[in-house]
């Protein structure tokens, strides 16, 4: 005799979620995970955050001082810059711990943005807090393939101007972008934000691998978006270089005194926002120095005299920088010492020669000296030298 026994199907996750015993934050995240891979990511000890300096601790350039954003390429903090249209130049200030607020729990630093002078929105405005992720660091996302992974972006935000804002990501070398919105509900209160960006599965687009250039551009949009740089399509990848949405708050940059603060920014694989991945200060600094290194004070570099008017010197960099062709800047005089004493120039042009592989050392040349003797030794003294290799 054959006995057949049947029983109703049981969704184990649903039954567990119905239990009176709370599962806690970690348990809820595990239950929310949709695939075994997402569950593995939650319990693994590996790196999660694809962004650098998400806790806003590193500020090599400004030492914690605020800056006025006079153009689109100024970094108030390492790896983070304020992306703004020219109409907003000199009307926006930004900096580490701007206005000296109490950060959210678990953090002691944040980035602040303030509208110093309200400006009527131009035809195609944009204003956002931006970081560009190197192509080498997003290879595993499989963008441009059918296996592309979803990502989650989470952060703490505070503003005196509640409303609808946007997070936008786009390809560094592909004109495709995905925009989603988030709401800040209360004024002058830290609020935790989490948004999901679907994987870019369009196989007609090519995302470069093993690439030291722009891989993924991440924008936290601060309003005043309309026209060219706003997308009316949310939560989908579309053609264009969008940095905001057409329906988010429209007047942020038009009102003097508006402020926006952000910290704890994390971008990770999957549809679940996990607790922020705190790294050691030394590790975070080294990550930032791949893109920017500053040598405060007077730096002495041994070199030699090249011809009758040039000095060449080799500077060892640690850690290695992103690429072999960085630029330099200095805000002081450059001195040389040689066989016949000291000589100085005020802010001369520093020529960067081809560096060794991976930017491990640089050849610096300064011309315009008098009385050089070809091949003789010389020491180069540069004040507050900056080596810039940003994306």
By secondary-structure content and strand pairing, the structural class works out as mainly beta
**Can you count the beta strands?**
22
Q: The CATH topology of the largest domain, please?
A: Jelly Rolls
Biggest sheet features? 8 strands, antiparallel
**Gyration radius, in Å:** 25 Å
Uncertain runs are none
Oligomer class: single chain
- Tell me, briefly, the overall form: globular
Beta-strand content bin? 35-45%
Q: Count every helix, treating DSSP H or I runs of 4 or more residues as helices.
A: 4
CATH class of the largest domain: Mainly Beta
The CATH superfamily of the largest domain turns out to be: Galactose-binding domain-like
- Summed over residues and divided by their number, the pLDDT gives a mean of 88
- Helix-strand pattern: HHHEEEEEEEEEEEEEEHEEEEEEEE
Helix content: under 10%
Number of domains: 2
Alpha carbon gap, first and last residue: 74 Å
CATH architecture designation of the largest domain: Sandwich
